[in-house]
Description:
Helix content is 45%, strand content 22%. It is of the alpha/beta class. The chain has a single domain, classed as HUPs (Rossmann fold, 3-Layer(aba) Sandwich), CATH 3.40.50. Strands 3-2-1-4-5 form a 5-stranded parallel sheet, with helices on both faces. Helix 1 links the parallel strand 1 and strand 2. 29% of the residues are buried.
Amino acid sequence: MYSRIMVAVDGSDISALALQEALALARDQHAQVRIVHVVDTVPPLDVDFDAFRQSCLQEGREVLDHAVGVARQAEVEAEPLLVDTESSPSRGITDEAARWPADLIVVGTHGRTGLMHLLLGSVAEGVVRHAPVPVLLVRSVRTAPDKPPG
């Protein structure tokens, strides 16, 4: 049984699915929910650091506000947390899971493979590698082509 569920959101469609899964599980388990958005505030070169950081934080607040609204509609009370880190997003998630302490982390995975995975990495993979608790990975649902009977 889970009593403290942490879900990471980034504003993407897949993180919306992860949020829905976390909320359904929280309702079933009567669990507390913490919705986390991690902001990596290390700017690209030649960018005004303060302006970049403020923009990232504002975007993060908007993502969290939307997620809390979704939780409210699902009749689940959720605590939002904006994590500002200079380390990787996956490390920000796992560090917060240990600090809170969560007993389950829910995160969406884009399912990138091959070159895209090598270039972009995987926040979900980093969470799985470093998580102090179980991780529920949520993928988008892909429909398979109809197979002939037989």
